[in-house]
Amino acid sequence: MKFLVVCGQGLGSSFMIEMNVQQVLKELEVQDGSIEVDHCDLGSAASDMADVFISGRDLADNVAPLGEQIILNNILDKEELKSKIEEYLKEKGSL
């Protein structure tokens, strides 16, 4: 499975969220290598780049055509990120 963190213009916020996603996966004891995490800007994102796209609420409509989404109300809230990733992985039977 691959997660792609998408931000609007640059790569700063998506890189920060990518690092947080990796930390959350460790906390959830997700097997190393079973989920790949990457980041990019919205203009570069394509549907074949990932299984799940993670972005802030402000980009939800733009990211929706790409595929499955995890939408964050607050991109700085690690607890929200952990909760939503955990919920998604449980739904998919990956946790």
TrEMBL record:
A UniProt-annotated Pfam family: PTS_IIB
Domain PTS EIIB type-2 span(s) in chain numbering: 1-93
EC number annotated for this UniProt entry: 2.7.1.-
Superkingdom in the source lineage: Bacteria
GO molecular function: transferase activity
Keyword terms of this UniProt record: Sugar transport, Transferase, Transport
Keyword Transport: yes
Top EC class for this record: transferase
Protein name stated in the entry: PTS sugar transporter subunit IIB
Organism in which the protein naturally occurs: Salinicoccus sesuvii
